[in-house]
Write a structure and sequence with these properties.
Elements lengths: L3 H8 L5 H8 L14 H5 L21 H17 L11 H72 L12 E5 L5 E2 H14 L16 E2 L1 E5 L8 H17 L3 E2 L3 E2 L1 E4 L3 H20 L1 H4 L2 E4 L4 E4 L2 E5 L13 E6 L2 E6 H8 L3 H5 L5 E9 L7 H8 L8 E6 L7 E6 L3 E6 L19 E3 L17 E3 L9 E8 L3 H4 L5 E8 L13 E3 L11 H10 L1 E3 L9 H12 L3 H27 L3 H7 L7 H7 L6 H13 L20 H10 L13 H9 L3 H11 L1 H7 L17 H13 L7 E6 L9 H12 L3 H11 L2 E5 L4 E5 L11 H19 L16 E4 L2 E6 L2 H17 L10 E4 L8 E4 L2 E6 L2 E3 L2 E3 L5 H24 L5 H17 L9 H19 L9 H20 L3 H18 L8 H6 L4 H8 L15 H13 L3 H4 L3 H6 L1 H8 L15
Pfam families: RVT_1
Keywords: Coiled coil
InterPro entries: DNA/RNA_pol_sf, RT_dom
Length: 1149
């Protein structure tokens, strides 16, 4: 008898359910073997293998009693009357062994397959890891080989340099050489030599000279002159002549620019200058302390020794006095000389404290003003200090406590002053604990009358003084407590002033770029050059005063009263009057902004990206914020590919006239930031208003061609003869929308192309070569050439100022830069099309020889598959590299029509780009089958975001509604209406844009739902009022503006056919027009048919335009007056009614 435990042990618990089901169904035992007569075999019947399959057996688990009873009954009936009722199912040993062997083989096979699968996965992962390791090892080997090659190359270069380097020459004899000085650093050589020659001739000292003076470089601050012994002249007589030159210049004041005087001295070696410099350094140090101390010094420059009184206090060659404590000496080593200063002897002879002599005197101080505002406005602190007569300067930092802040963390705000504020979570005001405190001024005092510093405190107050100054790493010699300053803000905290000293000169030089205004100049102008212009810019103009808040006369009188009687009530009155005055100023400023003052609008709009410099500096190493920006820009602009200088021009040049000068000045804008020379549009207009200034300015511009081109130049007209250019972004929207509408299930693919750092990467050599091909070698080309050749840029950040030498790229913001780049980009695309014969390939649309669009640095390519686009992009990229440009693959976007069945990926410069569901160009979304309302969706989202993002305080202000409506039309209307001239409309889109206009008016009117009206009534009342406002103040609904712009732009597109060169908008607009389709329909057998059923949106639009024009509308466009006269019929036909409900009047809603 087989026990279930034996089977369980044999099979390991797997696959036993079929066998248990068979065994449980047998009524007799399974007999192993049988009697000799074979009786047992007669009663046994083998069970087929297919009946042992677990899929056909009953599920495992205990069956219900009812089901078990039915099964036994069924088996009993089968035994009694059914087929084979006398046969007892049984298994013999051979069959059982065969069954177990088959099942074990299946188990072993499954385990083997599983093991082999796991091993294959393991081997695959191991192989991948090993391949990565081998690749890294190969790259490391390659890098090491490159490093070794570079080291070997450097060694060879160093070896060659040492072989070719001449032997060191002995230092020349400086006994017969004079040094002339007094000029500022980096003065031009010609200026130095000319002024020196004039000075020597004036003093009749030229007769003592033996040779002409010279400079050792193009820009220096000194000049040299060598003397030689004359015939029968000894060395003493040569030195005598040299001394006469030195004394002649010393006795007579020979002035040179910037208030300096010319001097001469003997030339010294480097070691001699170092020795003399030690004595000069000590003299300058004592002069900074006071001129009376420097007068006590006796100096010997030859040895660098200094005496004060009876003591020797410093020397560069002599040893220190014996017996002097080493702690009293300051020692250093300069050019091999061990210099020293006796601090104790110097302090004793001068009668000054030793710590003052030993401590380095700061070159400049930074004032730190710490004040606890007690919840007051942060802008009240500087204003209160001005009331007390404490003026601001560039070297003042405010540390303010208990400022009201809205959000946790650090924020930066800038409204005249830059504020960086911090707040912890759960606190109403921000406070940060310093990591280490070196000095804290705080104490417990029972009664405040006079503290240790003699500062009177309020009597009758008990508690702890909590105001203190903590510093680390700074030298703060003194801290001042400003008495009674707490009354200015009505708090309990005094202002603390600390002064931090810094050694060394300030490296940061920040140039003012504020707009300037004319304040008056000379009565008559007789000459103008560059230096005169710079001088007049500083003397005849001043920075334009801001329009910030200023105290009224009533507030000023209250301040004077509070100063004379500094009581808390008087200062409280000042605060109340100032709040009232400031509130009136804010209201007036908003009223001016809503009435059309764009300067106020710009100031009141929310500023973006404020405080980025603080966050950027935190991510850089200490003191490296400016250098990181400078290095980044230097890698872009300083390419080393400079343009050579052209030879002088020998031909004629047509001078500019006074009328052209007036036109150039009228085209300029006032109130713009100025450059380093402080010249501005206001300066030029002031010069022209002065007698003689207009003519002299024109003469200066005609002589200085480079400056002339900066202020007024003829526009470049050398566009290539191709149809690849797009004149404006409206045309690009029109072209792409028409192409998407006319896709006709062709499976077209579009690729938007972006050029990386377009203006910055232009190769000037290629640009000048292309300009030469168009303009020829003439005065105009030479002017553009010199403009591109001589370029330096001043980089000014919040941390420092530096100069960049721009060898490549074109200036951003210059008037000529867009024309340059547009010309170069179109030329590059045209050259790629000609070189690789794009026109010979099959067009995407039959009869439309246009497969590219280009607008500045944005391009668009389309084809029936991605293969054609990928090929053209690779070819275009080759030509772009020759122009110094390249494609930014990360900003490219691929869109494939839903009818496209091929590949939907493209590779550009190694980047794999997947096709997207939409194409975004200039903020407008395009796709095949898009409706006009869907086109408007992103355009309508921007006005809402602008309204609530930074204009709600202006548009919802309590000022006259007419001005606010006009402001909304100019700002928000321009945001949504700019591309509509190129987008076809329908009734739903016209209604949608009108609803947006009305909704903006409802928000401006502050219309809200009343408690006694339903939402339907509120909606009806709000929109009726908005329609009345639009009709009264705007005059036109946005649907009317859309239809007008469409009509005018359609005429403009068609009239371009009058010229030889067509743009892409005209080419696409003329492709398969309504007239062409009607002609095809008239050919039943040969005419072109659509591949499916379409809604003829553009054809219906042309039908409506024909109806409004009274015939084929394209023929009417060539008559401008006649075309404009048809506008009324177009509006009457397409524009929507003002209201679809019963609204009696638009003026009284």
């Amino acid at each position: 008898i087989l026990d279930s435990a034996i089977l369980l042990k044999f099979f390991g618990g797997k696959g036993l359910r079929p066998f248990f089901s068979i065994l449980s169904g047998m009524s007799d035992r399974i007999v192993l073997g049988g009697d000799k007569g074979g009786a047992g075999d007669a009663r046994m019947k083998a069970v087929p293998d297919d009946e042992l399959d677990g899929s056909d057996l009953e599920p495992s688990g205990p069956s219900s009693p009812k089901r078990g009873k039915d099964q036994r009954t069924e088996r009993a009936s089968k035994r009694r009357g059914g087929e084979g009722a006398d046969v007892v199912p049984a298994l013999d040993l051979v069959q059982m062994e065969r069954l177990l062997e088959a099942h074990s083989s299946r188990i072993l096979k499954a385990q083997k397959d599983n093991l082999e699968g796991m091993m294959s996965i393991f081997e695959q992962q191991t192989a991948e890891k090993l391949s990565h390791i081998e690749a890294k090892a190969e790259r490391a080997d390659q890098r090491s080989q490159n490093v070794e090659a570079k080291l070997e190359q450097m060694q060879n270069q160093l070896h060659d340099l040492l072989k070719t380097k001449p032997a060191p020459q002995p230092e020349p004899d400086r006994r017969y050489t004079l040094v002339f000085g007094g000029w500022p650093r980096d003065t031009r050589r010609q200026v130095i030599l000319q002024q020196l020659k004039e000075g020597l001739e004036r003093l009749d000292l030229v007769q003592h000279m033996d040779s002409e003076a010279f400079c050792t470089g193009p820009r220096r601050s000194t000049a040299l002159a060598v003397f030689y012994p004359r015939e029968q002249e000894s060395e003493y007589m040569v030195r005598r002549r040299m001394h006469q030159v030195i004394m002649g210049l010393a006795k007579t004041h020979v002035a040179i620019p910037e208030g300096r005087r010319l001097f001469a001295t003997y030339s010294k070696s480097r070691a001699e200058r170092a020795v003399a410099g030690h004595a000069g350094w000590l003299k300058r140090t004592l002069t900074a302390m006071g001129a009376e101390y420097a007068a006590l010094l006796d100096l010997e420059y030859a040895t660098g020794t200094c005496w004060v009184g009876s003591s020797i206090v410093a020397s560069a060659t002599r040893p220190s006095e014996p017996g002097v404590d080493e702690r009293h000496l300051l020692r250093d080593e300069v050019e091999g000389n061990k210099v020293w200063v006796n601090v104790v002897a110097l302090a004793s002879e001068l009668g000054r404290p030793q710590r003052e002599i030993a401590r380095p005197r700061p070159n400049w101080e930074l004032e730190i003003r710490s004040w606890n505002l007690g919840g007051s406005d942060e802008y009240a602190a500087p204003q209160a200090l001005r009331d007390l007569g404490m003026l601001d300067s560039d070297h003042v930092i405010y540390l303010l406590q208990e400022m009201s802040r809205r959000e946790a963390g650090w924020q930066t705000d800038q409204k005249g002053l830059a504020f960086s504020t911090g707040k912890k979570v759960g606190e109403w005001c921000g406070w940060e604990r310093p990591t280490s405190i070196q000095a804290v001024r705080s104490r417990y005092i029972e009664r405040w009358e006079n503290d240790d510093d003699g500062v009177p405190q309020p009597i009758g107050r008990m508690g702890k003084q909590i105001d203190c100054v903590c510093h680390k790493g700074l030298s703060i010699p003194r801290v001042e407590i400003c008495v009674d300053t707490y009354r200015c803000l009505g708090t309990d905290h005094e202002l603390l002033r600390a002064f931090a000293g810094f050694k060394g000169e300030q490296r940061h030089v920040r140039h003012s770029t504020r707009p300037r205004e004319w304040i008056g100049g000379p009565e008559v102008i007789n000459k103008i050059d560059h230096d005169i212009l710079k001088t007049m810019a500083k003397q005849c103009t001043k920075p334009k005063p801001g329009k910030g808040y200023r105290d009224s006369q009533e507030v000023k009188e209250a301040i004077q009263k509070a100063r004379s009687d500094p009581s808390a009530d008087n200062w409280k009155a000042v605060q109340n009057l100032r709040k009232k005055s400031r509130r009136q100023w804010e209201t007036e400023r908003i009223r001016e902004a809503t009435q059309g003052d764009w300067e106020q609008v710009r100031k009141l709009r929310a500023k973006k990206n404020v405080g980025w410099d603080c966050h950027y500096a935190e991510q850089q190493d200490e003191g490296e914020a400016h250098n990181s920006v400078h290095k980044h820009l230097k890698n872009i602009y300083e390419t080393g590919d400079t343009l050579p200088e052209l030879p002088p021009w020998q031909g004629e040049v047509e001078a500019f006239t006074l009328d052209e000068l007036d036109m150039a000045l009228q085209a300029g804008h006032r109130g713009k930031a100025v450059g380093l020379d402080q010249t501005s549009q206001e300066l030029l207009q002031g010069i022209c208003a002065t007698p003689g200034g207009r003519e002299q300015l024109l003469e200066y511009f005609n002589q200085e061609t480079y400056d002339l081109l900066l202020w007024g130049a003829p526009q470049l007209s050398c566009s290539p003869d191709s149809s690849y250019s797009v004149q404006n972004p409206k045309s690009e929207s029109r072209d792409l929308n028409s192409a998407a509408v006319k896709e006709w299930r062709r499976g077209t693919c579009w690729l938007k192309v972006d050029l990386a750092k377009a203006f910055d990467r232009v190769d000037r050599r290629v640009l000048t070569a292309r300009l030469l091909e168009r303009l020829g070698m003439g005065p105009e080309y030479r002017c553009w050439y010199n403009l591109l050749r001589q370029n330096d840029a001043v980089l000014q950040t919040s941390w420092d100022t530096s100069v960049l030498h721009m060898h490549g790229g074109i200036k951003q913001g210059a008037i000529e830069s867009p024309a340059f780049f547009s010309f170069l980009a179109e030329t590059c695309l045209h050259e790629a099309a000609s070189r690789y014969k794009w026109k010979d390939s099959e067009d995407t649309y039959e009869g439309l020889a246009l497969n590219d669009l280009l607008y500045m640095d944005d391009g668009l390519q389309w084809s029936r598959g991605v293969a054609g686009i990928e090929k053209r992009i690779a070819q275009w990229g080759v030509v772009l590299q020759e122009y110094g440009l390249q494609i930014n693959a990360k900003k490219c976007q691929l869109y494939c029509s839903p009818h496209h069945t091929g590949e939907r990926t493209i590779k550009i410069q190694g980047e794999l780009i997947q096709a997207s569901n939409e194409l975004h160009i200039l903020g407008v979304t395009f796709r095949v089958g898009i409706t006009s309302s869907e086109l408007l969706a992103p355009l309508m989202a921007k006005p809402r975001a602008k309204f609530w993002g930074g204009l709600q305080h202006l548009l919802r202000a309590k000022t006259p509604l007419a001005g606010r409506v006009r402001l909304m039309e100019r700002i928000l209307g321009g945001t949504v209406l700019w591309p509509l001239a190129a987008l076809p409309m329908d009734s739903s889109s016209l209604g949608l844009i009108n609803s947006l206009q009305q909704q903006l008016c409802i928000w401006m009117m502050r219309v809200s739902k009343r408690h006694d009206e339903t939402w339907v009534q509120y909606w009806e009342r709000a929109h009726r009022g908005a329609r009345a406002v639009v009709h009264k103040f705007s005059g036109k609904r946005w649907s009317t503006v859309w239809l007008e712009r469409w009509w005018q732009f359609a005429g403009h597109r068609t009239r371009i056919n009058m010229y030889e060169t067509q743009n892409a908008a005209t080419i696409i607009d003329e492709y398969r027009t309504r007239t062409w389709w009607r002609e095809q329909q008239s050919r039943p057998t040969t005419g072109i048919r659509h591949p499916g059923h379409y809604y003829p949106k553009l054809m219906n639009m042309e039908r409506d335009m024909d109806r409004a024009a009274g015939g084929p509308w394209r023929e009417q466009t060539y008559n401008r007056q006649g075309w404009n006269s048809k506008l009324g019929a177009w509006l009457a036909q397409k524009d929507l009614p003002w209201a679809s409900m019963r609204q009696p009047s638009l003026e009284h809603a």
